[in-house]
Amino acid sequence: MASLTAGNRRPVRLADIAKAAGVSHGTASNVFSRPEIVREEVRERVRAAAEAMGYGGPDPKGRLLRAGKVNAIGVATAEPLSYFFDDPFARVMMAGISQACDATGAGISLVSAANNEQLAWNIQSALVDGFIVFCIEGGSRLVELARERKLPFVALDLDSEDGSVAAIGVDNIAGAGMAARHLTDLGHRRFAVLALPFADDRTGIVSAEQVRAATYAGTRNRLTGYLRELSRVGVDISKVPVYETANDVASTKAGLETIFASDAPPTAILA
């Protein structure tokens, strides 16, 4: 960090502090970057000179440029910033990412946007060494923007068969099938499904057409896994109610009330 000298003639540099304190440039630099290797008397003299001249320390941007990295990971989503704090899945994922970053001393930069143009700018301007992209929605665009930065990135929950993308995800179809199989093995044949959102700003019983047009592939894939397994044991899946919740208490209660108002309520729920 540079400060202006009297009369605003030029900014105070580390070399000025070193000269005023009667030490070498390297010693002055160590006072701010590795103070433990400098004698206390020398540290106090350098810091006194810096305070008197209004110098707050070396500009961190210079150090970062020399090192070629900023020691921070960008976590990007096409959702608004509040997604990281409001969504239960995002909170759990961020907890895991935070643990890994704590273990390595890396920082986290949250990258989000209210629209596509802002998202492009935020990803292009993020001061990070690489990205983790949450591909819950707009995954292909996030991958495209991360590629344009030419930085390492990993995609989470990417609904794509692109083998060139480093991606970590869940086999939602197989996992949902295992859940349904557990219940059919227990003898259940009357089912209902409480689902996460298929699209934004909508709750209630969903049609097959609405499922096919789902914005959120993960929700659609889980339902596919449920219904495939139920069909395998002879359940008439056309009679299985699928209630789309908003992933909150109110809509889940509404879904349960709707499902159990039926003349033949389910004996098992896939949620």
Structural summary, described in words:
With about 270 residues, the protein is an alpha/beta fold. It has 3 domains: about 5-65, lambda repressor-like DNA-binding domains (434 Repressor (Amino-terminal Domain)); about 70-170, Rossmann fold (3-Layer(aba) Sandwich); about 170-270, Rossmann fold (3-Layer(aba) Sandwich). The chain is built from 12 helices and 11 strands. The chain has helices at about 15-20, 25-35, 40-50, 60-65, 85, 90-105, 115-125, 140-150, 170-185, 210, 215-230, 250-260; strands spanning about 5, 10, 70-75, 105-110, 130-135, 155, 165-170, 190-195, 205, 240-245, 270. Strands 4-3-5-6-7 form a 5-stranded parallel beta sheet, sandwiched between helices. Helix 1 (about 15-20) packs across helix 3 and helix 9 runs parallel beside helix 11. The longest helix has 17 residues, at about 90-105. The radius of gyration is 28 Å and the shape is elongated. The mean pLDDT is about 85.
